[in-house]
Amino acid sequence: MDFLHSGLADVQRHLAFVSVDPINWKFYVQVFSWSVTIFESYLLLRQYPLYSKTSPPEALAPHISKEDFAKSQIYGKDKAQFALFSKLFSQCVDSAMLQYGFYAWCWGAAGTILGKLGYGTDYEILQSIIFSFTMYLLSSLPTLPLSVYSTFVLEEKHGFNKTTPALFVGDLVKSWLIAFALGAPFLAAFLYIFQWAGDRFVPWLMGFMISFQLLMVILYPTVIQPLFNKLTPLSDGELRSRVESLAGKLHFPLKHLYEIDGSKRSSHSNAYFFGLPWSKHIVIFDTLMQQSKPEEVEAVLAHELGHWYYLHPTKMMAISQFHIFTILALFPAFLHAPPLLRSFDFPKHVAAKPPTIVAFLLFQMILTPLEAFISIGMNAVSRHFEWEADRFACELQDQLKEESMKDMGDRLGRALITLHVKNLSTVWVDWLYSAYHHSHPTLTERLKVRELLSLELAIISICASRIF
């Protein structure tokens, strides 16, 4: 532990200038955030002309009708136009809030509310909680019309929206209440660790955040998810038999197999698993079961079980924890930096003893361009995991020694095509746009690789038969 703390202290010595130099951090954050927005807009403009193509990629031509392709192109074009407007509008709002002291005002407003409740400003944790939710609620209001338009105009136009206005408002209110119910104790514990551990908070905070993530694995399916969707045990039948049989053969610790009413809000479809290492739950959208045959849904779940087999969720969690560690290792220099808060219009008496939550918020803003580059790397790792999961599904016959799994790769291919067609997913994708935004390979890439993998497995099978 001493070695860790000495290393962290060395990092802080190199960043000591942050606490004394009068750097115009507001200007840099404005430049950073606008640079990221302009870059993302550039990527959209690279992608946009591809929606004018009149035929699908050669690899997809036999699988997608002209009508479905035309629909996906129109849907993609509408989404791109909306994304560009939303991005620029949101950036203008964020930039204005930054420029005119919105965050300093929120801190002052939180202090005023705290005073009316009979508490003084020495209750920093309580003021931080009020500050966070004041900022969260007020900053979400300008972009609320965008959510309304996306749901009731864009998705409605293309036949995906199933959400009623009452359901939309109910979801919004419930999400705010959940954010407060979970966010308040989380934030209180988060800030208490800073007060208790001082500048040696990094290992303690890492332990707390890992524990909280594990707690959410339990709370989300049992408490949060049922507030929005109904999960019911998958009824007996061919699909349930296939999934339970596959899970048993792979020794997947399946505890519950659910169907979720995704059609309550949208026509989009999906399937996923969650849970602790010894107790897993599989959730299948009702829309997926309506759109695909049982053997195709089984292939989709074989892909998902590939993620479990190769420990992809655990690996991604380890990567994210290392990412969080590097952020926390840099933070102490910004935690005790009055010039940082003064740059963002906070009064001298607040900046003299920077509130932890405020310093952390501003620190995250400074990291904006770095986070954009990190997201590219995270997407690359995620796409690699997707390739591995696809290969796992295709090679199930060899692993389980069962002839019934021989066509699993073909079934997965058909399922992916159905998912893309029914969801009107984009089939023409710019490589740079995809690298930045997509955590999954494109459908064209996946089908090409699946064909090569099938050929490879066929050659291996022929060679093995000749040897023996």
Automatic annotation (TrEMBL):
Cofactor note: Binds 1 zinc ion per subunit.
Keywords in alphabetical order: Endoplasmic reticulum, Hydrolase, Membrane, Metal-binding, Metalloprotease, Protease, Transmembrane, Transmembrane helix, Zinc
Primary localisation category: endoplasmic reticulum
Matching Pfam families: Peptidase_M48, Peptidase_M48_N
An example molecular function term from Gene Ontology annotations: metalloendopeptidase activity
Catalytic reactions of this protein: Hydrolyzes the peptide bond -P2-(S-farnesyl or geranylgeranyl)C-P1'-P2'-P3'-COOH where P1' and P2' are amino acids with aliphatic side chains and P3' is any C-terminal residue
Peptidase M48 domain sequence ranges: 234-448
Positions annotated as active site in the UniProt record: 304, 390
Entry EC number(s): 3.4.24.84
Superkingdom: Eukaryota
A Gene Ontology cellular-component term: endoplasmic reticulum membrane
Any single biological process term in GO: CAAX-box protein processing
Localization per Swiss-Prot or TrEMBL: Endoplasmic reticulum membrane
Keyword set includes Metal-binding: yes
Function: Proteolytically removes the C-terminal three residues of farnesylated proteins.
PANTHER family: CAAX PRENYL PROTEASE 1 (PTHR10120)
Recorded family membership: Belongs to the peptidase M48A family.
Protein name (database record): CAAX prenyl protease
UniProt organism field: Lentinula edodes (Shiitake mushroom)
Lineage: Eukaryota, Fungi, Dikarya, Basidiomycota, Agaricomycotina
